[in-house]
Inverse folding.
């Protein structure tokens, strides 16, 4: 009995000591690794600012090929979310969400694990270095006073650091294989658009000869609206359906937003009633005193490719000035590229 009593007392002393020491251990942990990537900060940022490219460089993506992923919220930037679920205990379940971005220099992510109550934040910090980018990947974890997790935190750097190093190596290879065309001269936004009623008319012409065709279509839609008692509710759009090669014939719809839906019974002269696209888009503005509109579309295309975003419909242009009364040098056009 004395032996058992001695063991019990020793155990109590050990527990009390462990608890006492736990109160003095850090209630948070920090892990950090860095690398230099031979690509501009904008390219690295476009990869890290959303989750569509994440599994192409993640150090954990190949642990369980059967892992299920779900994406929600914005396709890029604050509000973009990724959830994962796996039967493999080494992967488990969890989620991450973009909290904050500073274009081309910083991305903050909230990381949650279903099996842990810790608060985790990932921070990617990008700074130019030579012709490339120094990327610092950091993870800060708060234990919320949990004593066991405080002990666990002592091992964080040793456990997670090698994964960060593996991920950075994969990220370096991925980014250096992507287009590096500079798109930073074009202010690109991510927008979510509601659907709106439209009246539209199809047209086609070589791009250089399209202006009179578009003007005629707008005039015909205007006549239709006047005859049917409809009212425009915004600037006209030109929706691109494609370009036939080798003739270079641009196929498009000219459309006008309406304050209320029109019906098929009122269609005449080829004018169609319908709805505009609903969902997420890349947005940029083209001002005629700036670069050619093709360069704006090229910047949108590069950003879309690097970020891993997918096309989600026909692109369109919307005049923000009245083309009938505004000098070309003063005109402006909004460009929209549907994405998912």
């Amino acid at each position: 009995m004395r032996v058992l009593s001695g063991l019990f007392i020793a155990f109590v002393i050990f527990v009390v000591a462990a608890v006492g020491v736990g109160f003095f251990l850090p209630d948070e942990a920090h892990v950090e690794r860095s690398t230099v990537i031979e690509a501009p900060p904008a390219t690295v940022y476009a990869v890290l600012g959303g989750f569509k490219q994440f599994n192409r460089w993640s150090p954990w993506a190949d642990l369980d090929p059967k892992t299920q992923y779900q994406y929600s919220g914005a396709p890029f930037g604050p509000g973009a979310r990724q959830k994962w679920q796996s039967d493999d205990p080494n992967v488990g379940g969890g989620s991450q969400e973009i909290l904050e971005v500073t274009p081309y220099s910083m991305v903050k992510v909230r990381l949650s694990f279903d099996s842990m109550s810790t608060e985790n934040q990932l921070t990617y910090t990008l700074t130019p270095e030579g012709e490339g980018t120094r990327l610092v990947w950091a993870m800060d974890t708060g234990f919320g006073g949990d004593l066991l997790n405080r002990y666990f935190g002592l091992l964080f750097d040793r456990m997670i650091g090698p994964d960060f190093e593996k991920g950075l190596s994969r990220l370096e290879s991925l980014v250096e294989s992507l287009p590096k065309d500079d798109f930073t001269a074009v202010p690109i936004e991510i927008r979510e658009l509601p659907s709106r009623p439209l009246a539209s008319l199809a047209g086609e012409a070589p791009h250089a000869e399209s202006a009179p065709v578009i003007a005629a279509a707008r005039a015909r839609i205007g006549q239709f609206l006047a005859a049917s008692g409809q009212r425009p509710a915004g600037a006209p759009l030109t929706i691109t359906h494609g370009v036939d090669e080798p003739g270079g014939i641009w196929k498009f719809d000219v459309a006008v937003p309406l304050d209320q839906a029109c019906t098929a019974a009122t269609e005449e002269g080829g004018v169609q009633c319908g709805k505009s696209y609903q969902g997420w888009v890349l947005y940029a503005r083209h001002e005629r005193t700036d670069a050619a509109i093709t360069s704006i579309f090229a910047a949108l295309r590069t950003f879309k490719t690097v970020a891993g975003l997918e096309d989600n419909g026909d692109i369109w242009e919307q005049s923000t000035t009245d083309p009938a009364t505004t000098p070309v040098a003063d005109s402006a056009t909004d460009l929209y590229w549907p994405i998912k």
In short: Residues 45 and 321 are 33 Å apart (CA to CA). The first helix runs from residue 2 to 22. The chain is about 25% helix and 35% strand. The helical segments are 2-22, 41-48, 147-153, 156-176, 210-228, 293-307.
